[in-house]
Amino acid sequence: MTIEELEARVEELEKELRNFRDIEEIKRLQRAYGYYLEHMMDDELIDLFSDSPDTMLNILVGIYTGKEGIRRYFGSRKEDSKNPEFLHQVMQLSGIVDVAPDGKTAQGRWYGFGAIALPRGKGISQLFMGGIYQAEYIKEDGKWKIHKLTWNPFYSFSPENGWVKPERLPDEEDMKVSQPPPKPDKPRDVNSRYPSGHIVPFHFKHPITGKETEERIVPAQ
Amino acid sequence: MSVEELEARVKELEEQVKVLKPLKDIEEIKRLQRAYGYYLERMMADELADLFSDSSDATLSIWVGIYLGKEGIKRFFHGASEEFHGPELLHQVMQLSGIVDVAPDGKTAMGRWYGFGAASLPRGKGVIQQLMDGVYLVEYIKENGVWKILKLTWNPIYMCDPDVGWVAPERVAAAADVERIGTPPKIDRPREFETLYPSGYITPFHFKHPVTGKEPKT
Lengths: 221, 218
Hints:
Chain A has a single domain, classed as Nuclear Transport Factor 2, Chain: A (Roll), CATH 3.10.450.50. Chain A has about 220 residues and is of the alpha+beta class. In chain A, about 25% of the residues lie in helices and about 35% in strands. Chain B is an alpha+beta fold and about 220 residues long.
């Protein structure tokens, strides 16, 4: 190969490797956001964001722009970070991350889900919370940072009430209105629902012993 | 660089890329399965059906039965999206904890995933709400360079009202029996920390801050 061809090949291979590392680094960044958010660790959270003036945090209460805006928001939650009764667990799950061809920016979509305990008056409000994160990332001085983060909550609900408003729950008549599913091509041969005792077959062998794990039904006692 | 130096560099990089190739397949497959979840959330029939292989073996095995081939799979998703639609529909099944293994020939793969989430299904004049949980077993196939779902089996474990839970009311243990949980086999030593809410305990961070590189506070 000529020098030009070899140089082009080196560039191509290096790009392929970099893309791989970038995705892993970005996933690490977003997951760290979740671990810090759990205890509202304001400094750690603020430092995850880009120094760019169009940096943005878009959450339920509104939009904060620039690092100063983001500092203002998380800074206002400082009391939460000192309260042992506060919990803000938002597990960062199921991330799809795509890096732009130039390797300078990226986008991600994640689920956030977890258990929340918010001090309210003399008591604590408990909620399960779920929603979607849309994130834009930027590489600054060789480090991936959050550029724009949008949190779109679907629901926050107390465990005893659920996420559908009481007046929208179906009554007995409604429960009878069920359209049969499109005709299946064949019936299933297993019942997996709790408490069937069914253990879904494993496609993989035990990571350490290499032993097979068989499909089985745990018998009733 | 000289030609020799460049050739050595190319060889080294090619070795690294070769090692990473299976990981790239795994990453693409995880992306595929997670996309399935995001589309399923709003019962996006066309997007869902297009994730499946064109092979006549394509299979969707779900609670209500088994659908075969792309036509069968389309029939199911279109039927489901006709029954369940509108702003009150939420069919959130987060695709979690995936273990994906690619066959040595790089043409097929298998995966096991948890599905967990909140479902709101319009029914009659109201909306059913259920927590949903189960296991996915999935076979993948690479067609024209693109990973697709060949066979997807969803084995639901529970679908329950959040206020009722997944154990039938008549089988829920009495308060006195719940107390008995506190007798494990003799421990070798006690733990140093109480972690349960509201202890305020923060589990130590093994990693430095991704951006500042600062050591974590303890």
